[in-house]
Amino acid sequence: KFEFTNIHCKSLDKDFMDMEECFLKSVNRTYKYMNVRTKIYKFPVNDVTVRVEVLKRLNGYKPFLFNFTVDACKFLKGQRNTLVQFFYELFSPYSNILHKCPYNVSFITVTDTYRISRHLTLQHDVYVNKLPISYLDYRLTYVLPFPEGVYCVHSIYSSKGVARMDLKVYVNI
Known about the structure:
This protein has three helices and ten strands, in the order βββββααβββαββ. It is mainly β. A five-stranded antiparallel sheet has the order 1-10-9-4-5. The protein has a three-stranded antiparallel sheet with strand order 2-3-8. It has a two-stranded antiparallel sheet with strand order 6-7.
């Protein structure tokens, strides 16, 4: 049975982006979920690299089976990799991370009742919203059975060669 035990989110460059939400919520005994929301300040984002490593607790957290780096822009553009696809599908149904690069702000023109046009800038948050344990339990025990244990999924998100965010999700399977 899958369950979240902890989550740590850290913005490594507050001028580039910041963490708005980073928490686990237990609504009741059967419905628990994870929320992560970031606010990006510098656009356009032309390149994103994600480094993911899975660590298993064995007298401290030790590397376990998966350690990879992916160019997120190429992946979202269509260059598929089975391993990356599996990890992406763990959260993608509950996320807005579907954007191809460059990831940019949107401009819309609003005309009010006096026919005065204004341009509004919509900055997009990047989020994983209400990712439930029931979904992850199914993916990690039936689709690809993981051995029981305590794990940390550590990911570092970089842009233009600079680390921007550090995310650690601790789980028990």
